[in-house]
Amino acid sequence: MATRxxxxxxxxxxxxxxxxxxxxxxxxxxxxxxAWEPYREMLLDDVWSLLNFRAFLxxxxxxxxxxxxxxxxxxxxxGSPATPARLLDELxxxxxxxxxxxxxxxxxxxxxxxxxxxxxxxGMIQPRFANARYLVPxxxxxxxxxxxxxxxxxxxxxxxxxxxxxxxxxxxxxQVLPSLRALPTPxxxxxxxxxxxSSGGEHCFxxxxxxxxxxxxxxxxxxxxxxxxxxxxxxxxxxxxxxLEADGTLVASxxxxxxxxxxxxxxxxxxxxxxIEV
Length: 278
Known about the structure:
CATH superfamily: Ribonuclease Z/Hydroxyacylglutathione hydrolase-like
Oligomer: single chain
């Protein structure tokens, strides 16, 4: 299910680790049932009803970078049955093995974005991407050292990165590569980060969790269950999606249906998600 997209001289590949059927009431518990009615056909459709959990492979500037690492093989998503974890298979399909990854950078540290970070090798926990530095938003790193309750994926797949000596933190705008820039978009988490891949006058915006489903293109004020600071998340979502629509920017989404790449456009006075043709 990997989707490959050229951006100038660079390539970005959407890799689906897991997927399952979205539960509107669970993911958006404060949205009243009647608010979903205009979108009921989308939710019943076999494509639009699926919530995907993606990572993104970026090949640019002679480097191989992975953005996020999915749910991983150990802890399945809650709710409806999920497909098996496939990130390593997806990487293999595009000719990449873990040793090829030179850096892993995170949009944020929620459980569904960090699951393949580490592995047990002969009783010792080691980085799965053995030749990579792991780049983590500083605000999320600090946050998960302050809280006591967290998903086991975070405790098992994130916190050990520090003692292993493979982690670097970044703050604010950060140039990951000459062609890949990190942009702070906090609200969903304290350090939530989006990315812009720019090459040859072309751009692709990696959305992260600013929106989890195409319905949110129009319903920007709907609060997702895991929005850490709901007012900040809504404000950020409102601003960023409006700008992406105005600029016609290509967008890569962590959770939208296949193919996961598209643009926000205006149709009959409503902002909608228009997937690219692959």
